Amino acid sequence: MEYVKKFETSKLKYEYGLDGIRTFPWEGIVPPFGGGYCIVRPGTSTLNHVNIPDDEDEMFIAVQGDAVVVIDGIDHPVAQGDIVMIPRGLSHFVRNDGPNAFHLYTIWWSHVDVDAYRRQEEQTAAG
């Protein structure tokens, strides 16, 4: 089993207006959440959206740089080490007005993730 995934810029995929790598799925691991490492380019914004499914909550952890997370039209300036909670049903996006890339790690969870985790746990327990 692979215990460490090395960060490789060649694996970044452009989606939602950012460069990102989904950290799950991870072979042999089915967590009750999803996650990804994201980079918002200087002078850009991510896609303004509401998470789907409609019970999906999300959290951002600012890793490097400064940006503004806009949640339901309200600006929230963030910097390295800050944590942002985005409750289900709220529109949100990240705006990077600065000259440097903004890096964040995102974690999301919903009934879909939890149900998959429970199924995996039940299969493991059943042997």
TrEMBL record:
Alphabetical list of InterPro entries matching this protein: Cupin_2, RmlC-like_jellyroll, RmlC_Cupin_sf
Naturally occurring in which organism (per UniProt): Saliniramus fredricksonii
Protein's name in the database: Cupin domain-containing protein
Gene3D superfamilies reported for this sequence: Jelly Rolls
Residue stretches spanning the membrane: none
Domain Cupin type-2: 38-107
